[in-house]
Amino acid sequence: ELAEQLGVSRTVVRDAVRVLVAKGLLEARPGSGTVVCGPSARSVVQSMALFLSCGSHRVTAENLVEIRRVLEVAMAGLAAERRTSEDLAQMRHAVSKHLKAIDAGDLDQCAGADWSFHVALARATHNELFPLLLESIADILIEVRRTAQQVPGRPRLALRYHRTILRQVKAANVEEARQAMHSHLREL
Q1: Long-range contacts: 41-46, Cβ < 8 Å, 24+?
Q2: For residue 167, is pLDDT > 80?
Q3: pTM for the complete prediction?
């Protein structure tokens, strides 16, 4: 029916259904057909990332900094309120990876460890939307980090800010954690 309605071959419809099943938007149920699924968190992130990378509009550095200030300053405060010992361990692990990458002079690893810290902080809010929102701009943020890591002294400066944020989150100092993140993002 779809092939006929859309004026395409059945092969085209089958391929489209396979792609939509792979993206989690359709579910093929043997014996009962194909049904539309609600979007998953992963499909929302993929859609936002695709939207941002499609090039039909420009995401400026200023746009990115504004979004990060709104999201990440709030995340730091919430993480200070809600973090668990496991959350703190994840943040410490990211800081440790960052230091090892700096010592090894591996800028790609620095960028990855930097990103890991921010993701761990987002998860420490225990609000599933923060990691999703952060992940939707991940590709852009990782590219920005790779560029920033090439500026002499920048990896160590970022690490110093991460340690300060971690200290404030660990101490449950909400306002100080927010301020530490604000100071970190002001350096961008």
Answers
A1: 41/128, 41/132, 44/132, 44/136, 45/132, 45/135, 45/136
A2: yes
A3: 0.76
